[in-house]
Amino acid sequence: AVIAVARERRAGETRVAATADTVKKLIAQGFEVVVEAGAGLTASVTDADYEAAGAKLEKTAKAAIGKADILFCVRGPEAAEIAALKPGAIVVGTLNPHQDKATLEALAKAKVSAFAMEFVPRITRAQVMDVLSSQANLAGYRAVIEAAETFGKALPMMMTAAGTVAAAKVFVMGVGVAGLQAIATARRLGAVVTATDVRPATKEQVESLGAKFLAVEDEEFKNAQTAGGYAKEMSPEYQAKQAELVSGHIAKQDIVITTALIPGRPAPRLVSAAQVASMKPGSVLIDLAVEQGGNVEGARLSEIVETGGVKIVGYANLPGRIATDASALYSRNLMAFAGLFLTKEGAFAPDFEEEILKAALVTKDGAVVHPALLNK
Ligand code: NAD
After folding, report:
1. What is the pLDDT of residues 137-161, one digit of tens each?
2. What CDD domains does the record point to (predicted)?
3. Fewer Cβ atoms within 10 A, N terminus or C terminus of the chain?
4. Which residues are known to be catalytic?
């Protein structure tokens, strides 16, 4: 079967869905790989690298995609690319299925079998395919780097002949994969780190990284984790108590990094405009949830908003700001996923009833088929 990789066309997308390393391994598994010329440049993969790995280059996206049994992409293909697909072809990518209905409908209409990597279940066998984790980890790292860049002071304490520089105070709100990496990175840079989450399991994780945990630990908190390991949407009462607890704390922070998400729902509002206003001039907030509506009041997508000397950074796609590593990990996630299309003997014969494939399948035979996306 032929796997095609095209240049990502969505605004600001710098990642690519296969690297020379994964191309080589996919070919070893029996796939052929076709790459649109220039597809890897923003992620430091040259056409020569792809060719050396055994890929065939095509000048245009249309030519590459037209040959595909499987299209690998980072983000959902756009109309022209969908039009180039053969009916029955497979598309694998982060398709943003809860928000980007138009792309789903277009994929369905083109009779494509599309898999949304966001829906890969978080079972042990699928960890190697978990794009949310691989990308969130880098986003958490990058959030601290962006904060350090925007903040006019140092993160570590420094004792010098000219005087002492105080350590920065960093508060991480939402301690999933991204938040944990943000805590670890801020600690490595010498900041004094605190963190909060609504899932009780995170308390120990925060403390094991040498940071301090802060949350309203009532009955609702004790039950805030779903069986799938995700957060529930908290009641307005809980959110009010939590806001009161963190208010005084936020006022003393230099850097606040927010990462809170609830699958399929808008991001919870964690920091109000009044709390932003309570921070010292020069402080920085990094809102990782800005694409899902934002955790910080006043955050704006792809912008740095400055208010009362406080900067709210709303960069979209932080993994795209560390494109080489993000592409390398994402590509390995997709390569592992493509392995599911093969039989034990190595023949290409996707079984759409296989557990992981079934969970991630969003369109097939002309329709949107995923239960989480129907009647919405
Ligand atoms: P996520 O991106 O869905 O959310 C980020 C964090 O925001 C979560 O920790 C969530 O609890 C938190 N949050 C939500 N509402 C909040 C609020 N009102 N206030 C504060 N925090 C709030 O989370 P994620 O990174 O995808 O991780 C979710 C869970 O899945 C974790 O338990 C993680 O360890 C687990 N996980 C499991 C696997 C696996 O088994 N393969 C892989 C990755 C993650």
Report:
1. 999 999 999 999 999 999 999 999 9
2. Rubrum_tdh
3. C
4. 122, 127, 130, 133, 230
Task: Name the residue with the closest Cα to ligand 1, atom 40.
Answer: 122
| pTM of the complete model | 0.95
Closest ligand 1 atom, residue 233 Cα: 15
CA distance 97 to 264: 9
Centre of ligand 1 from the C-alpha of residue 166, in Å:
31
The pair of structure tokens assigned to 324 is: 């080489």
| Any atom of ligand 1 within 6 Å of the Cβ of 258 | no
For residue 92, list its beta bridge partners: 72, 115
Tell me the H-state helices in the chain. 20-28, 47-53, 61-66, 79-84, 101-109, 131-150, 177-188, 201-208, 219-222, 236-251, 273-277, 323-338, 355-360
**SS3 assignment, position 132:** helix
Q: Which residue has the higher pLDDT, 364 or 242?
A: 364
Ligand 1 and 130: CB distance under 6 A: yes
Residue 44: which region, alpha, beta or left (left: phi > 0; alpha: psi -120 to 50)?
left
Regarding the beta carbon of 214 and ligand 1, being less than 6 Å apart is answered: no
The structure tokens listed for 323 are 């494109």
**What is the structure's pLDDT at 376?**
55
Phi, psi of 19 (to 5 degrees): -110, 175
Q: Report yes or no: 126 and 334 within 8 Å, Cβ to Cβ.
A: no
CA–centroid distance, residue 175 to ligand 1 (Å): 6
Residue 196 to residue 175: CA distance in whole angstroms = 7
Residue 91: partners with Cβ closer than 8 Å, 6 or more residues away: 70, 71, 73, 77, 85, 107, 112, 113, 114, 115
Residue 16 phi/psi, 5° resolution? -135, 155
Q: For ligand 1, say whether the CB of 77 is within 6 Å of any of its atoms.
A: no
